[in-house]
Amino acid sequence: MEKNIKKQLEIEENEENNFEKEKEEQKLIQQLMGDVMVDTGASITITTLTNVLAFAIGAFTPTPEIRLFSIGNAIAITIVYIYQWTVFGPAIALFGYKELNKILKEIKKKIKKQKIINNNSNSLSISSFSSFSSETDSGINVKEEEYFDEDIKISENNKRKTIKKRKEGMAKIFRRVIQKYCRRFLRFYCHSLNNNCVAFGVFLLLFLYVCISLYGLFGIRAELKPEQLFLRFSDIQEILRIRDLYIMPFYAVCLVFVNRPGNFSEPTQRIKWHSLVADFEALPSSVGSFSTKFWLRDYEQFVESDNNDESAPLDDLVSFEGITPDERRKNELTEFLEWPEFQFWNGFIQLIRPFNSSSEPQLKRFFFSTASFGEELKEWSKREELLENWRRVADSYPELEVSVFEDEAKFLDLIPTMIPQTLQSTICTLICMFFVCLLFMKNIPSLAISNFAIFFTCIGVFGIQSLMGTALDPIFMSAAIMSIGFSVDIPAHIVYHFYKTGVSEGNENKLIKNVEERLLDCLASIAFPILEAGLSTLICVSSLFLVDLHMARVFARTMTLVVIIGLLQGLLVIPTMLCQFSRQKSLQNNENNNKVAPIVLAVNE
């Protein structure tokens, strides 16, 4: 009975110890996860908010493709953000719990092995001393031989262990060497950025970069080419090439609809119609009157020839059908449209025919066609200008309700809206980013530096793409909206970590480190993750350059520019600006602290 009771007590004690150990491990994991969330939560939230806001602004654009693209990306980023806090975080905690148990088990094994080695060494020393004391003059004791044998075995085991440790420790040594030289380089790099001469050179390069980017930005042009949506060796490319080469430069057709023509019998109304057609034919790019298909001209010739011909065929029909000449004049338009060589004009005219055949039909609406020419019409932007000229002429006759139809007008109408939409989206996005950063950073220089860096990245992407010959089309607009969102990540991370590094927890205005140490801590904690993220993005995007498609290459170029410019901004320009602003602020604080208050001496008379 006593033995069973002792066993139960031992089991309960072990369970209590295990329960306490599990509690301690859970507290440790909770503390680790809390530290991780505190360090990364603000950065993740800044990135998510800025990206979602950037795509939310793009969701209000009138272009359906860009709207769908922006909505999809905003929803995806939101889902990823929720996934990080609800699924990814608990998964890390579970795997961290297992890893922590493995580490603790390894530590316990090492402690046990160390105790066994210590006990063996103590027992060996005692046995060797006793054997040495019991030696005889005639020879060596047997215990001494056993001691030397055990000593040889231990030395062999130690050699094997040292070989394993050397193999396992090569990676650790390699890491330590790399970390050592990286720390030296990082310290030298931070010290160099804090130098005035280096800062002047960085600002000079930044000025040249901004000038080149603005030159390309102001030279950007909006263009739309349907062949950019297909592969280079597609049959549709050949069809579009033949059309642009042999049709559009010589005969660009325009259909003009007159929706409220008025009273057909009034001569003044017909004069307005002729004036409208003449204005279209007077455009510089117009082919001329022979390219215009206008039914009224044939009708007037028909009536004039009928009046001049004394024995007109219709006069015989009048007596045959019993129609008076006055009724015949009222039905001249109907007779004109029924004449065999003029029947095709029925497709150009819409009439309201009365129930009584003797009454005059009413003209509801009609249209005519005209054409333009020019080598510049191969470009869609020039065709959009021609469409605007046609619409300008149509708008000069509001009483007729004239409208212009062009086969590709729905695509041409996108061209003049691209630049304003892009500018509007960029400005709204920058404003949203400013307010998002304001939620996490109260330091005005940090806010200004982060927003200027985002602005410089955006103009660099647009300007360099323009210098590379990329026109502003819906594809480039979509990539640009995404680039605005991605351009936030690196500046926001750098500025936020610099803002938090070296600031005391109790008072955010009290610095506990100088500028160089703050920059060193900031880059030591975030420079490698930024480089890793940038290089991984470049590697993933580089495969798109192998696709012979305009859409893929524009997206790849845009992402490459965003990553490269963002890395240069985050690792070179922003640290330099932070050093200069922070150093000036610290100098001002030192000057204020060094001011000595006047001392009043009381003189005893």
TrEMBL record:
SSD domain segment(s): 1-94
Keywords: Cell membrane, Coiled coil, Glycoprotein, Membrane, Transmembrane, Transmembrane helix
Residue intervals passing through the bilayer: 36-59, 71-97, 193-218, 423-441, 448-469, 475-499, 519-547, 559-579
Main localisation: membrane
PROSITE patterns cross-referenced by the UniProt entry: SSD
Subcellular location, record wording: Cell membrane
GO-annotated biological processes: endocytosis; molting cycle, collagen and cuticulin-based cuticle
Protein topology in the membrane: Multi-pass membrane protein
Keyword set includes Ribonucleoprotein: no
One Pfam family, short name: SecD_SecF_C
InterPro entries (UniProt xref): Acrflvin-R, Patched_domain-protein, PTHD_SSD, SecD_SecF_C, SSD
Residue runs in coiled coils: 2-31
Cellular component GO terms held in the UniProt record: cytoplasmic vesicle membrane; plasma membrane
Family: Belongs to the patched family.
PANTHER family: PATCHED-RELATED, SSD DOMAIN-CONTAINING PROTEIN
UniProt-recorded name of the protein: SSD domain-containing protein
Species the sequence originates in: Meloidogyne floridensis
Lineage: Eukaryota, Metazoa, Ecdysozoa, Nematoda, Chromadorea
